[in-house]
Design goal:
The complex is a heterodimer of chains A (114) and B (113).
Chain A (H helix, E strand, L loop, with lengths): L2 E4 L3 E5 L4 E3 L1 E4 L5 E7 L5 E7 L5 E3 L5 E5 L4 E6 L8 E8 L7 E3 L3 E6 L1
Parallel strand pairs in A: 2-12
Antiparallel strand pairs in A: 1-4, 3-9, 5-6, 5-10, 7-8, 8-9, 10-11, 10-12
Chain B lengths: L4 E3 L2 E4 L5 E6 L6 E7 L6 E7 L2 E4 L8 E4 L6 E5 L8 E8 L7 E2 L3 E5 L1
Parallel strand pairs in B: 2-11
Antiparallel strand pairs in B: 1-3, 3-8, 4-5, 4-9, 5-6, 7-8, 9-10, 9-11
Classes of the chains: A mainly beta (114), B mainly beta (113).
């Protein structure tokens, strides 16, 4: 069965410093992996996706993630945090079956300090 | 273009009442999903439609929950005899086909008093 583990429930960074949000996955097959962001009282927005093409995936707003099969990881990074990045981030694996339903991690709340 | 819309945005109901939550997917998207997000948790899968049929309802917690998508577009999630534990944000998502990424609506916050 597929699953994802987000290793940190809360991350705090100073504005202008790098962001690292960690995610490990478990999957019997080559997975499809996603990062979504959820701002307060807003819907989930797709940041980026990995679907077995390039292992380094670039997303919106300067975020990127690297798929590492040997480490079963899909960590999200950004070189320089902005105040507007403060939000909840979810790592997601898509079930490799006819439904492609999502399994979400428990989320990481990112706080950006001025 | 228009995204996924959900109505109402907020619903407060009394324990034991019946509620309906509506989802309008992106036009042309054949796959539609319902998820439930409890406070402080990630969303959890409830049910998946491909066209008009419920292809996977394995996430529905019990038989008080039911969903329909009669014309392959709009979907309604129905909850009978609501309980306080049903309080959560109910999210709808659609995708062009199941293999493509899902686009989420803003959710309906259900509060059962």
């Amino acid at each position: 069965a597929q699953s994802v583990t987000q290793l940190d429930s809360h991350v705090s960074v100073s504005e202008g410093t790098p962001v690292l949000l960690r995610c490990n996955y478990s999957s019997s097959y080559s997975p499809s992996l996603f990062w979504y962001v959820q701002h307060p009282n807003k819907g989930l927005q797709l940041l980026l996706k990995y679907t077995s093409a390039a292992t380094l995936v670039k997303g919106i707003n300067g975020f990127e993630a690297e798929f590492k099969k040997s480490e079963t990881s899909f960590h999200l990074t950004k070189p320089s945090a902005h105040m507007s990045d403060a939000a909840e981030y979810f790592c997601v694996v898509s079930v490799d079956s006819g439904t492609y339903k999502y399994i979400f991690g428990t989320g990481t709340r990112l706080k950006v300090l001025a | 273009g228009a995204g996924v819309s959900q109505t109402p945005s907020n619903k407060v109901t009394e324990k034991g009442k019946y509620v309906e939550l509506r989802c309008d997917p992106i036009s042309g998207h054949t796959a539609l999903y319902w998820y439930r997000q409890s406070l402080g948790q990630g969303p959890e899968f409830l049910i998946y439609f491909q066209g008009t049929g419920a292809a996977d309802d394995s996430g529905l917690p019990n038989d008080r929950f039911f969903a329909v998508r009669p014309e392959g577009s709009v979907s309604t999630l129905k909850i009978q005899r609501t309980e306080r534990g049903d309080s959560a944000v109910y999210l709808c998502a659609s995708s062009l086909t199941p293999q493509f990424e899902q686009y989420f609506g803003p959710g309906t916050r259900l509060t059962v008093t």
